Amino acid sequence: MAAKKILLLLDSDRYAFPLIRFLTTNAKLFGWKIKVGSMFDPRITDRIKKETYAIPIEFLDLKKIQECEQAIKKTDLVIGLVQDATLLQIADSCISYRKTLISPARLTRQMALKKSQAKESNVLILMDCGFSPGLDHIIAKKAIDNIHSKGGKILSFRTYSGTLLGESSDPNAWDFK
Predict the structure, then answer these.
(1) Rounded distance, CA 118 to CA 106, Å?
(2) Mean pLDDT score across all residues of the chain
(3) pLDDT tens across 83-100, in order?
(4) Of 82, 118, 120, nearest in space to 99 by CA
(5) What are the helix (H) ranges across the chain?
(6) First vs last Cα of the chain: how many Å apart?
(7) What are residue 7's DSSP bridge partners?
(8) Among 72, 81, 32, residue whose Cα is nearest residue 55
(9) What 3-state DSSP class applies to 38?
(10) Are 67 and 38 in contact (CB under 8 A)?
(11) Window from 10-14, 98-102, 122-126, 168-172 with minimum mean pLDDT
(12) CA pair distance 21, 116, nearest whole angstrom
């Protein structure tokens, strides 16, 4: 069975290290191949590249539109932690190439307008997942119930969320309390 390809798109290094570590650690277990696209200052990208991860990862520059488009086309899952305007463009590409997009970003009106296009293309665009504990759990429960009502099975479910801390009182790798 071919490795599942995950494309992680980032525009902030605040969550980069713990999320990349989590994905690469689990990549061996689940057979994932990880590609990271960033809009970082080159110094941050260099810091990320110098880290030691459980598997090798590829990098791409999100500012290079063609490179980003090709990466989306070749992936199975896109995780978008980018600003809203960029996320809208990524959603368009995911719909065009029929790729799943998940993001902790809130569901904006502009993104909601893409719902019918995504449905027509049989594409999952899942927003508002990841950083608001109460709301995330309510939405997750509703999604799980919906999957079960259609005869589906959940093989695994994990959630990581909490409240952002100030950098001066940040005691953990996830930057959450």
Answers:
(1) 17
(2) 79
(3) 888 889 999 999 999 999
(4) 118
(5) 16-30, 42-50, 65-73, 84-97, 109-112, 115-120, 133-149
(6) 38
(7) 35, 78
(8) 32
(9) strand
(10) no
(11) 168-172
(12) 35
CA separation for the pair 5, 3 (Å, rounded): 6
Burial track 104-134 (b if 16+ CB lie within 10 A, e otherwise): bbeeeeebeebeeebeeeebebebbbbbbee
pLDDT at position 51 is: 80
Q: Annotate 139-162 with DSSP letters as a single string.
A: HHHHHHHHHHHTT-----------
Rounded mean pLDDT, 52-56: 81
- Helix, strand, coil share of the chain (percent; to 5): 45, 15, 40
Distance CA 113, CA 37 (A): 25
Count of positions (residues) in the chain: 177
Q: In this predicted model, what pLDDT tens digit does every residue of 113-143 receive, in sequence order?
A: 999 999 999 999 998 775 555 556 677 788 8
Amino acid at 40: F
**Ramachandran angles phi, psi of 92, nearest 5°:** -60, -45
**pTM for this entry:** 0.69
According to the model, what pLDDT value does residue 160 have?
58
